[in-house]
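task queued by scheduler; priority normal; single chain, no ligands, no partner chains; default sampling; output format set to structure tokens
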Amino acid sequence: MSSLLLPFAIRLSDGQLVSATDVPRGAACNCICPGCQGALLARQGTEREWHFAHVQATDCPDGYEKSVHELAKQRIQQQKLLLLPAIEASAQGWDAYGRLVEKKQSVMEARPVQLDECTKSRPRGEVTPDLTGFRKDREILVEITVFHRLMPEKQSRLIETGVPTIEIDLSVFKTQQATLERLDAELFENPRNRRWIWHPKLEEAKATVQAEVDAQIKAVQAEWEAKERLRPEPMPKPIWYQVRNATQFPTEAPTFDGRRWRAGLPEEARIATAIAELVSRTGISEDKVLALTRALTSRGMLEDITPTELATRWSHVLGLEEQEMALFLIEADYVL
């Protein structure tokens, strides 16, 4: 941030934000810093971007950010032009087989609109947005961020107004030197640096796609449960389970065969913990166990095998007792 030069200043003759290209060189610019209000010089050299510098050396941490923020508001107010972001909604979830379910809906493409009026810092109820735009009988609020994100409290107050509101993110100027040309490009040509904080059509679209995702997940869950009811009872085998951290399998314990697969695969963290315990108990190579678990990528791969059958298969691959693999499947949370 220290390498960024002060790009804009307040011209005392009219109180407007200007760039160093708009004023005479040196102290004749008659400008002050938007951050500290200190006197400035207009630097118009040949080696660096034209910029402003303080007459007296001073620590002014807010000058750069405030100059960009204030000129952005001034440019939109002057041009009465606002580039609206697209209205797009998406929702996602996971079905009973561990498959991603995702729905999207596009309501409106990004587009520029010409405002009839645009005012700065106009209070709206309990909040004061950076800009308020008017077009015919419609109102829109605009919030501009540069170095600092929009705080949740202010975002909530903006939403409570019930007025369509957008945020324009100019954080690109944290690392890129701001100039008037680059600022205008970000304000009036880049639809990707802005989002809707609130818009009634966006809320409707969100509700629609979420309902579609929920309906599909519910239908797949019903399908999975129906298949589970039709699955034949597994053949009993002499495999026992034990509680976590026990050192030996008890001689009297419920059979492992009564357990069913969970609706989805367990979390990777849970599997990793169970692998570590299996390695600790048996001395088996962790890589060998990982090769088996990573090959199991979806819940659907378990449809034609019972927990007991998989424990037997894996025990043969790893050269372990079936009880060890039964315990692993329990500890890893593969089964109910």
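post-processing summary
- Residues 200-230 form the longest helix (31 residues).
- The first strand starts at residue 8 and ends at 11.
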